[in-house]
Amino acid sequence: MKMKCCLLAAAALLPSLLFCLPAARAEAPYQAYVYDEWGKSKAAPTSYVPAAAYTGADAGVGHFDEPQDLFAAEDGFLYIADTGNDRIVKVDERFQAVEAIESFRLKGSETALKEPAGVFVRPDGAMYVADRGNGRVLRVGPRGEVELVIEKPRHALIPDDFAFKPVKVTADRAGRIYVLSEGQYFGLMQFDRDGAFLGYFGSNKVEVTPAVLVETFWKRILSKEQREGMAKLLPIEYSNVTIGGDGFVYTTTVVTKNSREEIKKLNPLGNNVLLGRDGRGDFGDREVPVVGAVALDTSFVDLDVDRNGFIAGLDRTRGRVFEYDQEGNPVAVFGALGNQQGTFLQPAAVAYWGDAIVVLDAGKRNVTAFRRTEYGELVYKATLLYNEGLYEQAADVWRDVVVRNVHNRIAYVGIAKALEKQGDYRAAMHYYKLGADRSGYSDSFAYLRIDAVRANLPIAMTALLAAIAGRYAYKAIRALRAALAARAGAQAGPRAEAGAKGERAL
Asked: Is 336 exposed, middle or buried (0-12, 13-18, 19+ CB in 10 A)?
């Protein structure tokens, strides 16, 4: 009987003991990696591991149905656009439902949501909903009263046959609203705080490819009728949009023909300023497999920006999350397609939620939370210090990173920066070489050359001045000797002539 009680007690304690195990020790169902300078993947320690998976039933609101978006608000609540169920679900930090919103009050009556595909919440509690099925965007106050309704604007820039189907929405601090609508190729639709259409913002450019060049050539020589029969060159539409804490607009594009600038950080002029340390703006996987003559390139469907400026981009092609720092440099890669916890069937949205990254899976109809491992924490901390210009403090952490991952190029560059700041340019050149940072290597070499010039310039100048002085002294001595010789010759001449006259007189 005692043995049976002990077994029952152990069985009761087992779940809590398992829950207390550090997530960093869990085996991730995917392989983390980094890229070397040649674009080849190298195995790396895992930066994020799955911590938990939540369903609508876990939240107490029944199963989700084709959920398409989620947003982590500053107050800690998580909002999920449960598109198939025509509702917005709000959960707390324990993933317990606070409310399931199916309608709002509009002018004294209830107005129901229909296929809401996007949600955004301002720090003051105002909620923006991309109500796709109803063809409108709603701004709702903290008390659930609709403050603004944006429907298809009447404007010369918008064709009459254009169907306004908003799928994503966000707003900046000034109240400007950015809307992504299905089939809109000319950029984000921008509205003022009162809902007036301002125009398009940050449109993608038509990418220059060989096919585009050939088509442009033919359009120059064909007639107007023939040109009208050709396909129009249109930019690729965005797949998602968000606003960072820095006030910049961040966007994703599902695929680009040149595989560049799939993630953008748009300044107030609509220009992309996120290009990474190498200046290429190449995001996602660099090794692109081809299956059945189809290139499986990275397809970003969503992104989020945390309070420190880190960017998480969600790829639907291989079910991966790519994390980048404020400058667009790679920090971590995790996730995969599959049925295990930590893998996805149809990844739809990603968000930073506290210290975790959460991914919404429309196929599994759940939300998976990932948290950093010990290695991930080191990389995150070192990157923060580095981007704040605290190179020497960051170098101590980068050295711990290198011990765990010899393929981390950014760690070598971080150490090189600290050595460069300390004036040890030769050692900095060594680490820049390990990090394949040609620009940093050249800068350190230039500093080393300047130091060599400064160290040897006084000696060289002293030697040069001594040589010049010696040359002039030598010339002066020669001139003096010549003058003395001439003078001696001049004095010896009369004496010799007098002597000769004396001899003749004798």
From this structure: middle
Q: Determine the Cα–Cα distance for residues 418 and 398; give it in Å rounded to an integer.
A: 10
Q: Residue 319 above 90 pLDDT?
A: yes
Q: What is the C-alpha separation between 453 and 460, in angstroms, rounded?
A: 9
Cα angle 51, 54, 57; round to 5 = 155
In sequence order, what are the beta bridge partners of 146?
A: 140
Q: Compute CA 374 distance to the chain's CA centroid, rounded to the nearest angstrom.
A: 22
User: Tens digit of pLDDT for each residue in 197-234?
Assistant: 999 998 766 444 555 445 555 455 656 555 555 455 44
- pTM for this entry: 0.81
Q: How far apart are CA 343 and CA 336, in angstroms?
A: 5
Within 21-151, residue ranges assigned H as helices are 56-59
Q: What are phi and psi of 306, to 5 degrees?
A: -85, 180
C-alpha distances in angstroms, 2 versus 6, 7, 8, 433? 6, 9, 10, 66
Rounded Cα distance between 216 and 218, Å, is 6
% of the chain residues with pLDDT over 90? 61
Contact between 309 and 246 (Cβ < 8 Å): yes
